[in-house]
Amino acid sequence: MTEPLTVFVNARAVHVAASATVLDAVRAFDPAEGDALAAGTRGVTDSRGLPAQSGDPLHGGAIFRLVSVRAGRPEDTA
Fold first, then answer.
1. What's the burial of 6, exposed, middle or buried (CB within 10 Å: 0-12/13-18/19+)?
2. Where are the alpha helices (DSSP H) in 1-78?
């Protein structure tokens, strides 16, 4: 059996399976935030502030922060 990983989401430790993804960690932190991440209305960055993808694999001690995602407006695409 593989030991669970401890990662941090918004400064709170969460424990997930070794095969977990960023989305799994966010859902362990808060299921509603996980749903928002899956829907694209929330984003997540790593400890350096770089965007992370919800399907990225985890490593023990990883640090993530949830961020807002600005909805695309027509004037943004012009």
1. middle
2. 22-29, 31-39
Closest-CA residue to 42 (of 77, 18, 69, 20): 69
Distance, in Å, from the CA atom of 8 to the CA atom of 25, rounded to the nearest integer, reads 8
Query: Given the structure tokens 């400890």, which residue do they identify?
Result: 47
pTM: 0.85
Strand 12-16, strand 42-46: pairing: unpaired
Q: What is the pLDDT along the chain (78 residues), one digit of tens a residue?
A: 578 999 999 999 999 999 999 999 999 999 999 999 999 999 999 999 999 999 999 999 999 999 998 754 454 444
> How many DSSP H helices and E strands does the chain contain?
2, 4
Domain boundaries, the chain: 1-47
